[in-house]
Write a structure and sequence with these properties.
By secondary structure, the protein is of the alpha/beta class. It is 29% helix and 28% strand. The chain folds into 2 domains: 201 residues, P-loop containing nucleotide triphosphate hydrolases (Rossmann fold, 3-Layer(aba) Sandwich), CATH 3.40.50.300; 104 residues, Alpha-Beta Plaits (2-Layer Sandwich), CATH 3.30.70. It is built from 10 helices and 13 strands. The strands form 3 sheets. It has a 6-stranded mixed β-sheet with strand order 5-6-7-3-8-9, with helices on both faces. It has a 4-stranded antiparallel β-sheet with strand order 11-12-10-13. Strand 8 and strand 9 form a beta hairpin. Helix 4 packs antiparallel against helix 5. The longest helix has 16 residues. The relative contact order is 0.13. This is ABC-2 type transport system ATP-binding protein. One of its GO terms (molecular function) is ATP binding. InterPro entries: AAA+_ATPase (IPR003593), ABC_transporter-like_ATP-bd (IPR003439), ABC_transporter-like_CS (IPR017871), ABC_transporter_ATP-binding (IPR050763), P-loop_NTPase (IPR027417). Keywords: ATP-binding, Nodulation, Nucleotide-binding, Transport.
Length: 323
């Protein structure tokens, strides 16, 4: 199995809305993969397609080398899934829901589930309807992990968990990746993603803006602060191969978010007419996310090979000047 999840031009259209628009994914085993996006970006739709609960309008995908459209049940046996608002049978007790779910899996499910529940200190004789939001989340996590799935899909998994349990849970995700399992994580908690993810994707209006190792993404993004003499001056875009993601103007100060910026390019920009000085700094994952999802962002969808649309940046001639 070369990839745990692969998708090609995955598209999902609803009436008056394109939830997904040509999404390509390739996620190898043994990684914590995180997908970031605002509400309505298409994250939950993507998860529903991967788990066989939604048939895409077009495109293909495979999960654990299975087709979720034709082999939905087989996919679900290989996957653990925790939605952002787990639906549990309120009339059942904590122990009963484990016993009930164990009937769909092998012999080791129930003992593992009980170990998880004991770890979270939730009494097995307590009814689901009497649990707090955090306790319900722990039960859902225990059910998803008890059969040791090849792929664990989590949609806002730490919602309702206290800080200590959240930290322990996130560390366990890293342990699963080290053991060769794969974690697909959808979260609004960007600081958590930054701590545990190996690879990150940013989904915006149904399009994948980037998908690459998190360290590589952070290394490739630079914020430029340019002070100019005249607020009406027009600056050229950064020289190739750098590309402009977005730009803002505040009087005599310009801020550019640039991908692929090299230190020597600062001197080229500083030499432009009317430029007083240029300052650069690396960006956090949260700042990168905001830049990619900012309205008016110029960068269209990047491929897994880290390609970006051409024509955004000016080229340099043989003498190193802006063309």
């Amino acid at each position: 199995m070369s990839s745990v999840i692969s998708a090609s031009q995955l598209t999902m259209r609803f009436r008056g809305c394109d939830a997904l628009n040509g999404v390509d994914l390739d996620i190898p085993a043994g990684q914590v993969f995180a997908i970031l996006g605002e509400n309505g970006a298409g994250k939950t739709t993507l998860i529903r397609i991967l788990t066989g609960f939604q048939t895409p309008t077009s495109g293909t995908c495979r999960v654990c080398d299975l087709d979720p459209v034709k082999q939905a049940l087989q996919v679900r046996r290989r996957v653990g899934y925790v939605p952002d608002n787990p639906s549990l049978y309120d009339w059942m007790r904590v122990g009963e829901i484990g016993w009930f779910t164990a009937s769909f899996y092998g012999d080791g499910f129930l003992p593992t589930y009980r170990q998880q529940i004991a770890h979270y200190k939730i009494p097995e004789d307590r009814k689901i309807k009497h649990l707090s939001k955090g306790q319900r989340a722990k039960v859902a996590l225990s059910l998803a992990l008890a059969h040791d799935p090849d792929l664990l899909i989590l949609d806002e998994p730490t919602s309702g968990l206290d800080p200590r349990v959240r930290r322990d849970f996130l560390e366990s995700m890293i342990d699963r990746a080290v053991a060769g399992r794969t974690v697909f994580l959808s979260s609004h908690q960007i600081s958590e993603v930054e701590r545990v993810a190996d690879r990150v994707a940013i989904l915006h209006h149904g399009q994948l803006r980037c998908c690459e190792p998190i360290d590589q993404l952070k290394e490739s993004m630079t914020e430029l602060t340019i002070n100019v003499e005249d607020p009406l001056i027009t600056l050229p875009p950064p020289p190739a191969p750098a590309s402009l993601v977005c730009e803002s103007v505040d009087g005599r100060q310009r801020q550019m978010i640039v991908r692929g910026f090299q230190p020597e390019m600062a001197a080229v920009i500083a030499s432009a007419t009317g430029v007083k000085d240029v300052q650069t700094r690396r960006m956090s994952l949260e700042e990168i996310f905001i830049a990619y999802t900012r309205e008016g962002s110029d960068l269209s969808e990047a491929t897994n090979n880290d390609q970006v649309v051409s024509g955004m940046a000016a080229t340099m001639d043989d003498e190193g000047a802006l063309a």
